[in-house]
Amino acid sequence: MPALQPVRGTQDLLAEEQRRHRAVIDTARGIAERYGYQEIATPIFEFTEVFARPIGETSDIVTKEMYTFADRGGEEVTLRPEYTAGIVRAVISNGLTQSLPLKFFASGPMFRYERPQKGRFRQFHQIDVELIGAAQPQADVEVIALAADVLAALGVLKHTVLELNTLGDQASRHAYREALVGYYAQHRAGLSEDSRNRLERNPLRILDSKDAGDKAINAGAPHFGDYLTPEARHFFAEVRAGLDLLGIAYRLNPRLVRGLDYYCHTAFEFVTTELGAQGTVLGGGRYDGLMAIMGGPETPGVGWAAGIERLALLIAPPAAPPRAIAVIPMGERGDAAALTLARELRRDGFTVELGYSGNIGRRLKRANKIGARAAVILGEDELARAAATLRDLDTGEQIEVPLAALKDRLAPFR
Ligand code: ATP
Ligand code: MG
What is the CATH number of domain 15-169+229-314? Predict the structure, then answer.
């Protein structure tokens, strides 16, 4: 029988990798809490409509990347490809639209059927921040500042550049869309097939294309900034003023558009050159139209998501867990004493490994292999004297210690 394989684009997170993920999540959660964000978890799968409606039937995510299936009861469900839609659905489902503004922090797995490569998986993980019910540009500044603080705490900020753009309001977008359609119509022959399809349905998305031919055409495309309404222009100026005030550096990138249809006004990404093609570590923006699309009241929102795998590649190795005390029994009396001693020490906060196979030599070898700091050897002779042998595994020194004094003597090895 051939050995079973993991599904393409999925991976097991072994100890070191899992520690990196945890460092990212714990750091982000701690900072989000200081900003007053509450942790939320929504289901990993939802009715397909929860994602299909807001993300847009024409987006790459919905047309190509969603894990959608009928469950045994015939319900159309989808593994979540992103967090925002689920959180907004949760706000509506739980009747929370009366308690705005709401601030959420979330983390967990996402699923997209993409071509796997470095920093791009089919199951990946995100941290996510959403501020729902605040229409002011200060809210955009707040979530960007929160993002910058998380990246700084992870030691990643200095390796990134914040790219910033505005997608304007509806009137701006309408005027721009007309201009874009006109421009692309003139270059139709040079566009990729995907982009020719986007031309009628969503020309804005062509700006996001990774196709080389499309990119060349995009270089000459009209600039959105020239089509902004005065209100949208003012909103963006306020966001920029707030970032300047906080000393958060950014680079304007007029080509930055978010992959999802419901974004408006501010769009931003923290990008790095240190991950090859997968340079975006964190992306977000304002989504004032989303709640209404999902059947809730007209409600503004702004937020971001960051890829944990990409951040995990950039952070310094997190501290290893505390080194263990190896409790090593010899003989039957030792076995019983070791069981109770190990439990007591663990209750006292020590990390304890119980060695119970092989002769003393093997047990000590194993203790060294797992990086234990000290070993407590419980032999018949010592136990008869109500004592144990305490061995410093770094220096090899060992002494006999009365059982009653053991905890005190172990304290320096914690
Ligand atoms: P990209 O341009 O890299 O495809 P995206 O615009 O699809 O990113 P978002 O939907 O904004 O990404 O998701 C936010 C973040 O989640 C990204 O910036 C990235 O760090 C991470 N991310 C997105 N897709 C994947 C994936 N397939 N594997 C790993 N991380 C991902
Ligand atoms: Mg993508």
Answer: 3.30.930.10
- Give the position, in ligand 1's atom list, of the atom nearest the Cα of 81: 10
Task: State the residue for tokens 């263990």.
Answer: 324
pLDDT given for residue 201 in this prediction: 82
Instruction: Identify the DSSP state of 253.
Output: -
Confidence (pLDDT) at 260: 63
**Does residue 51's CB lie within 6 angstroms of at least one atom of ligand 1?**
no
Which of 278, 282, 302, 309 for mutating ligand 1's site (highest number of atoms within 8 Å of CB)? 278
Could you tell me the pLDDT band of residue 157, with boundaries at 50, 70 and 90?
Answer: very high
Mean pLDDT of 146-171: 96
Nearest CA to ligand 1 atom 26: 120
- What architecture (CATH level 2) is domain 325-413? 3-Layer(aba) Sandwich (3.40)
Closest by Cα among 306, 321, 301, 280 to 153 = 306
Instruction: Show me where the domains of the chain are located.
Output: 15-169+229-314, 325-413
Exposure string of 84-101, with b = 16+ CB inside 10 Å and e = fewer, is bbbbbbbbeeeeebeebe
Contact status, residue 305 vs residue 83, Cβ threshold 8 Å: yes
Between 321 and 244, whose confidence is greater? 244
120 CA → ligand 1 middle, Å: 8
Predicted model pTM: 0.89
Question: Cα(172) to centroid of ligand 2, in Å?
Answer: 25
